[in-house]
Amino acid sequence: xxxxxxxxxxxxxxxxxxxxWLQTVIxxxxxxxxxxxxxxxxxxxxxxxKPSLDPADSKNFRPVSNLPFxxxxxxxxxxxxxxxxxxxxxxLDPFQSGFRPG
Length: 102
Description:
By secondary structure, the protein is α+β, with helices and mostly antiparallel strands. Helix content is 43%, strand content 12%.
């Protein structure tokens, strides 16, 4: 599944070539109501907290989870569609301000 961890740069650089594929993946996920497990799996890497800290001491690292770019795109599309539907149906309380744009 390492091919799913392709970053945004190669996809954006070849956007004309990958656009159809990406659109097919997103539409299939929405249509089937299925989000493939490999798109949910993160690669966790240690990151040194500060450059001045000793890299030999494991306490000086924090974990960073990298999710597949394609999975992030699918999640964003779902979020935008869901928010639009909730707004149009007037389901959101007018006093709800957290996690909303504006």
